[in-house]
Inverse folding.
């Protein structure tokens, strides 16, 4: 740590550190980067994936084939090729951790879902009472539900009308259903 006030650490490059040191196995979250020269891309990806932390990984190549190998082979929440900041500034991309890195997701549809609460809200200004098939759940309500299914599944205007007359026998149905709209629906579905 350099002398002076505060908690400043200068950007540092560490060449060929052993693979078992903390710098190679943990997130530093500081201006320190290890540089390891390997004999192959597969060995480089194996070293990059050999950690419990994998928030992001990046690689550089002009070759589309090599880029695809890195996109498939690097195991991280975010993998970028030829850029490291683009994905965080792109609202449609999802930023998420992998393994022990990160918590939750940012950006994109999954990030929006995680930061929002899904609700259903309804208002029917014409209703003075509870909906037709709500409490109380009793024998007349059960019979009314059966009669409603009969009405919905009948074919032809005569069958629909006959089933509708069965429904009208139920006092709860008469109280909670606007009959004018139901007759119109009967005509439309015949």
């Amino acid at each position: 740590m350099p002398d002076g006030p505060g908690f400043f650490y200068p950007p540092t490059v560490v060449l060929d550190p052993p693979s078992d040191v903390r710098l190679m196995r943990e997130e530093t979250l500081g201006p320190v980067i290890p540089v390891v020269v390997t004999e192959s891309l597969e060995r480089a990806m194996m070293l990059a994936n050999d950690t419990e932390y994998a928030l992001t990984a990046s690689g550089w190549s002009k070759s589309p084939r090599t880029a695809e190998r890195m996109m498939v082979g690097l195991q991280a929440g975010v993998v970028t090729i030829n850029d490291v900041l683009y994905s965080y500034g792109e609202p449609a991309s999802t930023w998420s951790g992998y393994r022990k890195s990160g918590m939750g997701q940012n950006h994109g549809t999954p990030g929006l879902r995680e930061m929002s609460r899904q609700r259903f809200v309804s208002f029917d200004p014409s209703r003075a009472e509870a909906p037709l098939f709500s409490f109380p759940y009793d024998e007349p309500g059960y019979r009314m539900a059966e009669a409603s299914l009969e009405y919905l599944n009948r074919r032809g205007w005569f069958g629909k009308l006959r089933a509708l007359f069965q429904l009208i026998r139920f006092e709860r149905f008469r109280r909670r259903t606007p009959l004018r709209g139901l007759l119109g629906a009967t005509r439309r579905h015949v």
Residues 151 and 165 are 9 Å apart (CA to CA). DSSP finds nine helices and six strands in the chain. The beta strands are 12-15, 32-35, 56-59, 78-81, 95-96, 105-106.
